[in-house]
Amino acid sequence: MKRQILQALSLLGRIAKATKRAFAFNYCFWATQEDVAKIREVEEAVWGDNAASIGQIQSRITMHPQGNIILAVNHKQQRKIIGYVSAQRIHDISGERFSWAEITDNGFIKKTHQPNGSFIYGVNLSVLPTDRSAHLGELLISFAFTEAVKRNIKGVFLGARIPAFKRYKKKHPSSTAREYLLLKHRGVAYDPELRFYEKSGFQFLKVLPEYFPDPPSLNYGVLCYLKNPFFNNPIRKIIAWLLKIKILLDIKKALG
């Protein structure tokens, strides 16, 4: 019986790889140093003065190559980068308080990336602003999560902005960031950025004061967590491949 199970798993693995090769997937790639200048352009378009610098992007790729993924399309026979996600490996930080600068080594991750960490921390997500950017951002996060499944990571942390908080507080001066975090609108998170991560399956753990210089959020952040439901699953690598295929097909559909 054990031999039959192993043979079945091997067959599933070959099927997954063959299926992946059967499609001309050319949307998600590991970022390389050659991509840095184009990533920087995306960063500037999304974040303006808070964009990651050339040095920060170079350092992230050097420190954790598997933690930097670009979303790209073919444009005039050239690869055009339209999205970028960056992450580092860490220990369990659910009980800690920190700022973005502290948890990411000011965005360079030289001092904070832990190669054997059991969790992932999302350093950065940028997608060129279009009418499809929110959906593409969700798919890019989902694609990156398949790497967590493949590498048997326990879960993913990240710090989210709450960009509608300042406007809300003007109308409700006594409201706290914690109360705002719990606020719902039609059954989902009130804040648009929290809704974005909620749709990707993240849970909200706590408010992080002075997380990042962001006036619309009054400098608050929210620590979010996504548990890996396939942790220690014996066929997690096959699951990761199948999830990737599904996500890449969804990206293809979203791009039209």
Core attributes:
256 residues; alpha+beta; Aminopeptidase; globular
What can be said about this structure in brief?
With 256 residues, the chain is of the alpha+beta class. Helix content is 42%, strand content 22%.
Domain module count: 1
Q: What is the arithmetic mean of pLDDT?
A: 90
Shape call: globular
Summed up, the helix count is: 9
CATH topology: Aminopeptidase
Return Rg in Å: 19 Å
User: By helix and strand content, what is the structural category?
Assistant: alpha+beta
The proportion of strand residues reads 15-25%
Highest-level CATH class: Alpha Beta
How are the strands of the biggest sheet laid out side by side?
1-2-3-4-5-9-8
Number of strands: 9
Which consecutive residue ranges, at least 5 long each, have pLDDT under 50?
Answer: none
Largest sheet report: 7 strands, mixed
CATH hierarchy: architecture: 3-Layer(aba) Sandwich
In whole angstroms, the N-to-C terminal distance is: 46 Å
CATH superfamily: Gcn5-related N-acetyltransferase (GNAT)
Succession of helices and strands? HEHHEEHEHEHHEEHEEH
User: Helical proportion?
Assistant: 40-55%
Tell me what you see in this structure.
Helix 1 (2-22) runs parallel beside helix 9 (236-255) and helix 5 (133-150) packs antiparallel against helix 9 (236-255). The model has no long low-confidence stretch (mean pLDDT 90). The relative contact order is 0.14. The chain has a single domain (25-255), classed as 3-Layer(aba) Sandwich (Aminopeptidase), CATH 3.40.630. It is of the alpha+beta class and 256 residues long. Helix content is 42%, strand content 22%. Strand 6 and strand 7 (188-189) form a beta hairpin. A seven-stranded mixed sheet has the order 1-2-3-4-5-9-8. Strands 6-7 form a two-stranded antiparallel sheet.
